[in-house]
Amino acid sequence: MESIIVGKAFVLGDNIDTDQIIPAEHLVYSMDDENEAKMYGKFALSSVPSEQSGLPNGNIPFVEDDEFKSEYKIIIGGSNYGCGSSREHAPYALMKAGAEVIVAESYARIFYRNSVDGGFVIPYESQSKLNDKIKTGDELKIDIENNTISNLTSGVTFELNPLGDVLPIVSAGGLFEYARKTGMIE
Amino acid sequence: MGMTITEKILAKSADKESVKPGDNIWLNVDVLMTHDVCGPPTIGIWKNEFGKNAKVWDKEKLVIFPDHYIFTANKHANRNIDILRDFAEEYKIDNYYDVGTERYKGVCHLALAEEGYNIPGTVLIGTDSHTCTSGAFGMFSTGVGNTDAAFILGTGKIWEKVPETIKFTFSGKLPEYITAKDMILQILGDITTDGATYRAMEFDGEAVFELSMNERMTLCNMAIEGGGMSGIIPVDEVTEKYLAERTNKSFDKFYSDADAKYHSEYVYNAEDLVPVVAKPHSPDNKATVREVEGTPITKAYIGSCTGGKIADFQFAAKILFGKKVAVTTFIVPASTEVAKQLSTEMYKGQSLQEIFENAGAVIAKSSCAACLGGPDDTIGRTVGKDVTISTTNRNFPGRMGSKEAEVYLASPLTVAASAIKGVITDPRDVM
Ligand code: SF4
Q1: How many CB pairs lie under 8 A apart between chains A and B?
Q2: What's the pLDDT tens digit per position in B150-164?
Q3: For B328-372, what is each residue's pLDDT tens digit?
Q4: Which of A53, A65, B43, B380 could, after both became Cys, cross-link B370 (CB 3.0–4.6 A)?
């Protein structure tokens, strides 16, 4: 795991649910076949109502039409990010689109577990509301050793909650890697 | 210090004397349940991670119900079922309930109950967020993603953080126009969609123990809509009677200690409850039916693990008897057993089936159907700017199909009352 991640911000509101992250009709693609799996990237965040997509202005698609990857590496959410279904396709779709880190005030439990255990994206909790302080397109730097997020565009730095209990799983790159490292499985 | 029922079950599953909220523990899983949407990727991860010699940790404990995308021409969806079928055959999984056979059951959470997999005091993990439904049987049940499920498939284990518990007590007697759906929508309005995140929701009180198992399942089913890790109702005679008809397995009964510590407690007087809805686009967007009555609707939908059980159709039949629906109304029995019960359960001399047919409702085959939108050819799916009133559990943008549609969540009584009027209607006005 890299300890510094730099990328552009994509800002969303509160209560972004898994149907907005990856609509149910797309859950049929194989995750093993690369040609199909990239469809998850294409449709990531495709059901977010347009005016809420890419705040504060809105109407910014996370992934452009005809593309499979997003230009945004860091997603800034509000509270209760990832509520809704248990579909692991949700953090997976964000990863396929190229997202590496999510920073939100709080997460729904299953989405949080899936992000960590699947090793898809790093789910950081912010200590205060950030989705009204960061704009879509801002250049951000996440420092994993020091648990901070810096807005290189505005020059402001915010503290993040340490990853705590899940840090070993995040650092290993997921639950299976962690279990192998600790000798739980071969 | 005392423990809650959830803490006791988790301690037993982790082979510990006691646990407390915040402890990270490894649980031994009693049942792993999966379905056609999350089963194939779970199997894929399990094969990749455990390699050619991957072994299912305990075949008896794996249960697979295809239920989500069943009656569709979508080739990717059908391929998912082929993957499950091949897997069940290759690994000799007896607890596989294949589509197109007598064994086909329909929606997993109800099927688990009907087939006797819900055993008090045990730990059931499913690749579906509504796995919390099984908590109605005094057990710990929760939903996980594919990676966690693949890990269980190979090892029988899962890590969990012991949750704090929120207790909800309903004293008094429920009025006849109130159902478990109103109770949980009321709670969600009060705690919001993240009020119970990483917590267990325990239900208690006279009005809760008056509920049938079907209704208790509705209450626990929507714990996840409050962010809850699980919902739970301890065992009583009603539970034991249901179980006696479905299983001969013995079980442990756990009860919260009098000095157990709760994160918080909510107390309701059942007699004061009024019919409520969740307005678009969130299950916690509560309003009384009175506040939104008269809102025009284009569709009504009675189905899903939340609102497609026989108890839900019994409620709906009371209102639809001798009436005609004013908007397209879908009746989607959650399981094939419920579908059969529609023709054997009677109300005022007519079967529920007859009542719904005479009312002009569309009766669909058992599956998740439009509860989660599904492929384009899914029955009941919202299109364009539909305004649907539904007994399902989620009304996020696009959940039932169209991103522009509006979905109101309500009890089967309120949905049926609204169906015959064509506008949102309080069931008290037509009962
Ligand atoms: S009926 Fe709806 S909520 Fe229930 S399992 Fe199916 S899709 Fe999920």
Answers
A1: 128
A2: 999 999 999 999 999
A3: 999 999 999 999 999 999 999 999 999 999 999 999 999 999 999
A4: B380
Which among A45, A83, A107 is the top mutation candidate for probing chain B, defined by the most B β-carbons within 10 Å of its own β-carbon?
A: A83
CATH value of A4-181 in 3.20.19.10, 3.40.800.20, 3.40.50.2300, 3.30.750.24 = 3.20.19.10
Using a 6 Å CB cutoff, which residues line ligand 1? B 68, 107-109, 128, 130, 304-305, 368, 371-372, 393
Dihedral angle of Cα B44, B46, B52, B53, to the nearest 10 degrees: -150
On whether the CB atoms of residues B330 and B356 are closer than 8 A, the answer is: no
Instruction: Return the structure tokens found at B337.
Output: 């057993």
**Torsion sign, CA atoms A143, A148, A151, A155:** negative
Q: Check CB contact under 8 Å for A117 and B128.
A: no
pTM: 0.96
Task: Read off the pLDDT of residues A17-53 as tens digits, 9 standing for 90 and up.
Answer: 999 999 988 999 999 899 999 999 999 999 999 999 9
Residue nearest to atom 6 of ligand 1 (CA): B368
User: Residue B327 has what pLDDT?
Assistant: 98
